[in-house]
Each structure stands twice: as C-alpha cells, then as structure tokens.
Specification:
single chain, 184 residues, alpha/beta, FAD/NAD(P)-binding domain, five-stranded parallel sheet, three-stranded antiparallel sheet, 5 helices, 12 strands, 30% helix, 22% strand, globular, binds flavin-adenine dinucleotide
Length: 184
Amino acid sequence: MPDVIVVGDGPGGLSAALFLAKNDMSVTVFGQDKTLMHKAMLYNYLGIPKIAGPLFQEISRGQVRRFGGEIQAVEVSRAEKGAGGFAVETADGQRHEAEYLILATGPSNPLADSLGVAKEADGLVADRYGRTSVAGLYVIGWSTRLKKIQAIISAGDGACAALDILSAKAGEDIHDFDLIEDEE
Ligand SMILES: Cc1cc2nc3c(=O)[nH]c(=O)nc-3n(C[C@H](O)[C@H](O)[C@H](O)COP(=O)(O)OP(=O)(O)OC[C@H]3O[C@@H](n4cnc5c(N)ncnc54)[C@H](O)[C@@H]3O)c2cc1C
C-alpha cells in the first residue's frame, strides 16, 4: 500500500509526487497524461527559458519515476475515506488504499465533491498547503484556482502539499534542500 495516492498527473500532481518520492515515501500517481499542458508553449516557467508542454510532461514524469514514484495510466472513478486513510477505485475495477490522498485533477473535480470538500467561486477550498477540512485529504493546483492558474503555481502547490505530508510523518518541519558540494 503506498503512503500517498495522487490523482492527476499535470504539473501539480507530478510535483507533489516528485517531492514525496525523493524523500522516500511510496507514492502512486493516477493519470493518463491528458493534461492541457499538451497545448501549452511555456515561456513563463522560471528557470526554463522556453519549453513545450509535452516535453515538460515527459521530463516531469521521468523525474518522478527516477525517484521511485509509480505512475499508473488509469482514471480514478471513485474515492472514499475509510478508517485508516483513503481508498480509490480505478476505471479497470482495481481498489487502491493509502494514508494520504492528493487530488490534482485540474478544473473538474467530482472526486472532491464526493469527499465533501467545500467549494467557492474560485474552486475547491484548501489552505496554503492544500489541506482540506477532511484530515489527510489535499486538493491542489487548478482545482483550487479556477480563475488564475499557471503551471508553476500548480507545481508550487504540489510541493507545499508534499512538504506538509513529509512534515506530518516526521513530526517536525521538513525542507528538501540539496547541496552543490554533494554533487562534486
Ligand atoms: C491552451 C493553453 C495554454 C496554456 N499555456 C500556459 C503557459 O504558457 N504557461 C503556463 O504556466 N500555463 C499555461 N496553461 C495552463 C496550464 O496548462 C495549467 O496551469 C496546468 O495544466 C495546471 O496544472 P494542474 O496540475 O493543476 O492541472 P492539470 O494540468 O489540468 O492536470 C490534471 C490532470 O489530472 C487528470 N485527471 C483528472 N481527473 C482524473 C481522474 N479522475 N483520474 C485520473 N486522472 C485525472 C487530467 O487528465 C490531467 O492530466 C495553458 C493552458 C491552456 C489550456
């Protein structure tokens, strides 16, 4: 059983998965790479002068996998909260369970509705770490910012949620810092 299930494989979900996998949490991402990033040509992702959305997605998926994150190309059709965490059902009829659930499903979010996440005009309600009123359930990215969204914002949201989960597990605040000299 993974520690964390991430539903959605755009910049938000993949960023959360990268931080979690890199810090030794087991994480499974569900998504079929259908993000609208495939239409985007990015000139506004800080640190990258220009990149086509499909290449961004390919690199990001590879980064997650290199650190041991699993990506399953299947849609999640149901999600529920149970005693020890969350369970999701995929379109192929499989059931998967995890302690934490991150929903990063873009502008449409029926799974969050079914879990009782509050909504306002600009999307689902979450705090700045993506925490919802449901313990252990995070919503991030486009779903929470329907009117003003950029890829880098979703990626930042994913990082925030991951650091919050890592900190909760460790019982102390966690950063993910690496040093230049460690490369040498
Ligand atoms: C035409 C266009 C051009 C754009 N250009 C730029 C740009 O130049 N720069 C920029 O910063 N942003 C741009 N954007 C915005 C950018 O695409 C979004 O900011 C970004 O995709 C948001 O990322 P996200 O991870 O929050 O959501 P998404 O990218 O929408 O990812 C959500 C993913 O979850 C998947 N999913 C949904 N439900 C389920 C489910 N039940 N089970 C499994 N998977 C599910 C979806 O298929 C999708 O792959 C553009 C958008 C469009 C439409």
